[in-house]
Amino acid sequence: MNDSLYHYIDPQFNYTQVGNYTLLLQLSETTFSLAVTHGDKLMVWRHDSPLAELIQPGEVQEVLNFNYANVVTGIKSAAFTLVPQGLLNEETTIDAARLLDVKPEDTVFSQPLDDSNDVIFKATPSVTQAIQRFGNERVVFGASGWLQAIASSQPSSYHLYINIYHQQFDVAYFRQGKLQLFNTFDFTHEDELAYYTAFVCQQLKLDMSTVSVVLSGSIAHNDMRYHTILAGIFKTVELNNTSVVQQTGSLPVHQFLSLTALSLCASLADA
């Protein structure tokens, strides 16, 4: 394996043991990231690779060609809608498809998001083509694991959670351990991220001076842009240090939380 292509390879990674490993993939319209886990231990991590590498020859195929025990694929889609559990049926799915502007060539998925909500989301042909080699059986909504990880960390009503990726960000708010709001926004500058985050708080009628923002996702080491602008609006700003995997050494867990948390989604993938 070409170590320079990967951000982390555990010293105990063993080609002969891949039949006991799980491959986690997270796809957006243009990129994908991957992790390999053994139980709850991180074995391999790579992020921000061109989506075309999933179907075109390349050095990353060395990892993708193994026969893993499990493969879970998360699709980052801004075209989604949440439906209270118990209301998901053929009629609501058809209505959601209209709302999401589903084209004949798109693929629509519906599945549980948490104990209270189902999610309906679409994948474009480019994303669908990329996941074909692993099939659609274990495909989940890209934010599902991230939301599960936050929910299990006993979030308070004074925290707002943001996950940043590829000029988009997810925002989630919990009250009494239950998801109250989840949305995705496009942005090109940290000013826009701050604006939409403040807008969410206004919609929720939150006093921003009492709210702490918890960040994860594509935030490089020493990149303080988001901290700086958000700190002028909110009580505190911090990186999310929640970890769902064990790893050797010191890694920026906030960068791969959404990816590795897909390991929590096995029941959703089978639903």
TrEMBL record:
- Source superkingdom: Bacteria
Q: Which Pfam families match?
A: DUF3822
Xref: InterPro entries:
DUF3822
Q: What is this protein called?
A: DUF3822 family protein
Species of origin reads Mucilaginibacter aquatilis
Q: What is the lineage of its organism?
A: Bacteria, Pseudomonadati, Bacteroidota, Sphingobacteriia, Sphingobacteriales
